[in-house]
Amino acid sequence: MVTVAVEQTQVSGARPAVAPDTGRVAELRRQARERMTAAALLVDSIHVSPATLRARVGEELPLFPGPVTWVARDTTGAAIPHFGPIFRIVDNTIASLRGGKITGLRAGSTYLLVSAGVFSDTLPPRVLRTTRIPLTIR
Fold first, then answer.
1. How confident is the model at residue 29 (pLDDT cuts 50, 70, 90)?
2. pLDDT for 63-90, tens place per residue?
3. Cβ of 72: how many Cβ atoms within 10 Å?
4. Digit-coded pLDDT (tens) for 45-60
5. Of all helices (H) and strands (E), which one includes residue 4?
6. CA-CA distance, 45 to 48, in Å (whole number)?
7. SS3 sequence, 43-61?
8. I need a surface site. Which of 68, 78, 115, 130 has the fewest CB within 10 A?
9. What pLDDT is attached to residue 17?
10. Handedness of CA 112, 68, 117, 32 (dihedral sign)
11. What's the CA gap between 60 and 95, in Å, rounded?
């Protein structure tokens, strides 16, 4: 019989891999969706800056953090906390939106849509407000 001794070492600051508590993760995601839905129901307007976006073919514009900022406001003009925008590109043959980045695919003009939407366990999904930002790819 052969006995093999295995020595484990741990690098300082490194943590052992731990499987996430999927029940806890699912609950946190549900709570976040509910906060975002509650915020979306209050949105009267979405203010986006800059008013237009320009990029070159092949160029990437990161949204987080990046050149685009947004604030959702209620009917009194107060900023709404927990607002989680939904981003879409109207013509995805001109630009794509993946991984939080807009990528220019070919020359042309389209729009970046920044929307407030409902994605809740208790309400049907729908978009409530949208701001269109012209997007030009050169």
1. confident
2. 888 888 999 999 999 999 888 898 999 9
3. 25
4. 999 999 999 999 999 9
5. none
6. 10
7. CCEEEEECCCEEECCCCEE
8. 78
9. 60
10. positive
11. 10
